[in-house]
Amino acid sequence: MTTSHYIAGRWVEGQGNDCISVSEPALGLPFAELMAASVAQVDQAVAAARDALPAWKKVSASTRAAFLRGFAEQLGQRREALITLQMRNNGKPRHEAEIDLDDAVATFAYYAELAEQLPSKNRDVPLAAAGFTARTRLEPVGVVGLIVPWNFPLVTSAWKLAPALAAGCTVVLKPSEVTPLIEQTYGQIADALGLPAGVLNIVNGKAETGAALSSHNGLDKLSFTGSNSVGSQVMRSASAQCRPVTLELGGKSAIVVFDDCDPDQAVEWIVAGITWNAGQMCSATSRLLVQDGIADTLLPRLQAALQKLRVGNPLTEEVDMGPLTSQAQWLKVASYFATAREEGLQCLAGGQALDREGWFVSPTLYTEVPKDSRLWTEEIFGPVLCARRFATEEQAIAEANDSRFGLVATVCSADLERAERVADALEVGHVWINSVQAVFVETSWGGTKGSGIGRELGPWGLSGYQSVKHVTRCLG
Question: 100, 122, 178, 181: which sits with the fewest CB atoms below 10 Å from its CB?
Answer without folding.
Answer: 122
